[in-house]
## 1
Amino acid sequence: MKRYGTVFLNAYTNSPICCPSRAAMWSGLFTHLTESWNNFKGLDPDYVTWMDLMQKHGYHTQKYGKLDYTSGHHSVSNRVEAWTRDVDFLLRQEGRPMVNLTGDRKHVRVMEADWRNTDEAVNWIKEEAINLTQPFVLYLGLNLPHPYPSPYAGENFGSSTFLTSPYWLEKVTYEAIKIPKWSSLSEMHPIDYYSSYTKNCTGEFTKQEVRNIRAFYYAMCAETDAMLGEIISALRDTGLLKKTIVIFTADHGELAMEHRQFYKMSMYEGSSHVPLLVLGPGIKEQQQIPNVVSLVDIYPTMLDIARIPVPQNLSGYSLIPLLRGKAENELSPRGPRPSWVLSEFHGCNVNASTYMLRTDKWKYITYSDGHSVLPQLFDLSDDPDELTNVAVKFPVIVHSLDKILRSIVNYPKVSSSVQEYNKRQFISWKQSLGQNYSNVIANLRWHQDWLKEPQKYENAINKWLSQSK
């Protein structure tokens, strides 16, 4: 795709976690508008997505694999950890990140469920799409390169295992793997420390362990890439490739031990930056677009491709003008695309609502009400690894970026709404359990820590519940 299509160099998720990110992509709306606060709370099942609109306008639509943009999914642990993030306690919620090698050099299909979905999509292209008289839109959602579950961590385990086979691992050049620099635990931003601790990453890790986690992650990416290759081959073999636009992206990134964390939930590049590649008729070859874009742009882009009028209330802007290299304002009735993107996070493993504004070289991250937690400012041109917070050094930049952010979202108010929502949800969950509450809460993903001092943690929750706003 990179060779024959266009790459967006600065594409971002609008919320670095599965369900809220996908809710933004399918709705074209920022997270504070969908109120998709965590992995349990996404869009209503009857929400009109871009695919629904395309179907209404005569497209044949087909979906395979992971969708995960509506409410009601993911584990109880995931929900409770998000709801209780304001409680004054610190518990490890994930298994320690680890690697696992499976099978031999001939073992290609490691992530079997993804391969099954890929096969179904390939068969659909070869048997159905080729015979359609109407245009089609096909969606394939893969789980890879998401880490795998870690059952060794006991009941309600998380996903902290990077799993692959020698077939894929041999494609990774170990010598090229960069070992990320870490701040000492005492120097970490308080929110980062909470994330690192809850993700079970504050212990000792050898360089070899870190290199392995990163190598296995890259091997998992290679397997994902092979599935994409199967789709492109099927389109080429059926003669459909020359009249089909292909878009490849992801709901979020993977830190793979950058900033002493794995997984996502962070505004650092490893987690919030996503791949976005486009290939097809009218799309320039080997084009690299530096403009900042985000997943809410997918909705208007899909409608633009289908020549369907784009609703005016969307947060996103069509990518078509950038892809075709045209002046933006001749095409968009809403005027030019903004020079910023917004990402926000309100879920587990982070103990404050987080807002990120990315402009040309700056990344501004602020938390909660904008006062109680120190903001972060990174100059990505000078500090691509985001190791030096220059917020104190550049107060004028901070002020101007904060002003832009507040013009998009009243973030102290949103943070406060999320806090109230978390408390309401927790109380209702607690009441639903009755006598079983103490036992259930003790045996969630944090059980290894909780069971050492159950009363201490229950007391901390009771104190939080008794605090009024």
## 2
Amino acid sequence: MNEEYDVIVLGTGLTECILSGIMSVKGKKVLHMDRNSYYGAESASITPLEDLYKRFNLPGEPPESMGKGRDWNVDLIPKFLMANGQLVRMLLITQVTRYLEFKVIEGSYVYKKGKIHKVPSTETEALASSLMGLFEKRRFRKFLVFVSNFDENDPRTMEGVDPKTTTMRDIYKKFDLSQDVVDFTGHSLALYRTDEYLDQPCKDAIDRIKLYSESLARYGKSPYLYPLYGLGELPQGFARLSAIYGGTYMLNKPIEEIVVENGKVVGVKSEGEIARCKQLICDPSYVKDRVTKVGQVIRAICILSHTIAGTADNNSCQIIIPQNQVNRKHDIYVCMISSAHNVAAKGKYIAIVSTTVETNDPESEIKPALDLLQPIEQKMVNISEQFGPTDMGNESQIFISRSYDATTHFETTCDDIKDIYRRMTGSDFDFAEMERKQKDTFGDAE
């Protein structure tokens, strides 16, 4: 370990593993360490089920009705992948897809006045949807056509809209969309967690709705994908990529000290040895003095023996509860997956509820979501602090990732990866730079 590295990475969360993969592909000498004995850090999938029970301090062993403990891979952080999103691009370009298998999530739903409705995913579904009345549907269809044709470089598609100054609130007014339609468009299609976007320039919202539509167009049932055996497979896939390019991995390594000289990182001390480096990437838990608390997220893992009522018996789905519907500032999300994804015993379903904490009684905040899941066989609640860096690494060359937020997709995580990359290298992230030039050492087929 007493060697010199270009980059040392601490923690094997998804953000860290993708960055270590990218740096290795770029020819950097990388050492990647984690204090835990498993990959994934905060974004791990826990197996067997006995370990999950221990983690949440549940008394005794899981009951026999839960099946074999090894059949379970339970994500600590619930997220799906947008089929046309940034993470899928990263997976495809680096060919990490060859280590993983994905399934399409069966349906996307939105909560309105106590009931759940399917988010219309095609024109036909929009016209048949119980979310809107007849005239509303026509206006909504016009709005969708406008969004899909919108091109900043072609004024004819803009219909007098200036993407830099026209707000999204103005666009909704232009198409005369009602509050309910605005709610589900902003929160279930553009996937905003709050309503702050309404008074900002419309370009970002239009891009987000396009991403949803393009993701949906790829597979049809919903815009979301999920890897078999759980999200913990993602960091492991990128770790393998790093290893193929010469990256060194060490799990179970207690980190005693991050060695800084004259304000700049020079190495990491573990078990009495010092590995030297020019740059360091880590999650907030390794540098508590260089981060600040930016919020809290509550996540409730619920094990069910049934599908969720109103979701057409789908073995997987997402439900979004827009904040306006339950008098909140942030949306509540439900992600459900099942034995079909090799993450639960046969006949069992895992529904994970998450939201940004707003009060001193976080569990009562998620009650509307828990009510949709009844009866719940076993519930495990975790409230985690969210941190962001106070040190941006310009002087220290320590680059700290942000805690995973309550969103149910990886777009914000990818934004963080691109931001760290920019600060580390001084240049914008370029997907083409991730292009893989080496094959696996153990004879992958052509």
## 3
Amino acid sequence: MGAGFGGANRAPPPPTSDTIQAPPTAPRPEAAMEKDPSCYQDATKTVAGNGLGAEGTEAQLDDFVGAHPEYNEEEEEQKYFRRKRLGVVKNVLAASLAGTLTYGVYLGLLQMQLILHYDETYREVKYSNIQLEDIDRKVLMGINVTPVAALLYTPVLIRFFGTKWAMFLAVGIYALFVSSNYWERYYTLVPSAVAIGVAIVPLWASMGNYITRMAQKYYEYVNYKEEHVQEQQRAPRGACNTYVIIFQTIFYACFHLSFVCAQMPMLFFLNNYLYQLNHTLFGVKHCGTLSHGTLAGFNKTVLQSLPRSVNLIIVESALMAAAFLAMLMVLVLCGSAYRPTEEIDLRSIGWGNIFQLPFKHMRDYRLRHLFPLFIYSGFEVLFVCTGFSLNYGVCALGLEKLAYLLMAYGFSASACSSLALCMLRLRRQIPLLAGALVHAALLVTLFCWAPEPRHLVQAPLLYTIAVLWGMGSTLNKTGISNKEQDRPTVAGSC
């Protein structure tokens, strides 16, 4: 029992090598391959597939990122600069048409306003106690006298806002002048007229600079392979003159159409309310140089019926829409005049130097010699719109023919702007002198000849004088503008 008990408690004997059984193990790959030769083929296919997949991915990436086999770098470069040149032409046309609309709206509204305010019945019925005649005199004084001070602030204004934004601001001030006519009072008309006088010179200066800068850009895009263009250095003197002449011609061809656009309110609206010449010219005895003052004896009542206020508001709203369209054309269609780096260079010029620029330019003897022509260029337009149109045209043909006379002048000036292209072949002094000679001959003719009042037979001669005066005007203006461009601009490249 003890033995049995002890045997029951005895530990089992340790295992021996004969009694231990190894756990089942997976066969080695080599052994499996030895047993199954097809494994070699599967492994080879897997490695080859991985290699081909990597090479295929690289090939696809090269096709996507790399140069296209049919890509022609020189051709694409030509297409790029062709688009740039078309963009420059678009900028020139947009700026020119915006100037045409702006001046057309301004001149048309001012002409309609002065004719309405001249009529005694209109003044008494509509504005009996606000002295419209005195307001009109102050309006004209604000428009004509204020620009004298523009020499002091125009360079600073363009330097602060930039060329495009100075142009946009000036066009906006013209739109403000239109809006002031909705409520004709001293405190609306006179301040807006002074604002017009403040904006006239910056508008012309910024537009002239913009057209010149577009000519310089066009030269750069045509000669983009030149070394001085690639390094953004100054071009040779006179290199841009061809493009300046062409773009100035486009600008003035569009701008002189503003005299045509200005007659639209009179043609389609005001002529319906005017008396015929037998009534308006009843007291006129002499015309031209024989008359004393501006159309002495002209009837104080020119409207046979007063226009309704609603109709006036419709006309002014149409003019306001045209002014806003001009603003949008400058804002949306006109690109920047300078590159960002060039704008930085311009802004690095001190305010004092900017302020002194007009006086520094006057050190050039050519500008000093052209200075009388600058003054004459403004006064000759004033003469054809007032002295000739009233003392000769209206005196002989009646107020209802005023619009047609000024349209003849505008169409002639626009069409003859193409004569400025002769400066591409001739010396640029020749068109300038030709315009002066045409005006001199016409002035002698007008001094020696006085038309008969209410004599419609003289109409062909008057229209001929208007057409020839337009030709002289455009030769004068394009000659001055292109002669002035002989001087390089401050930040220009030519």
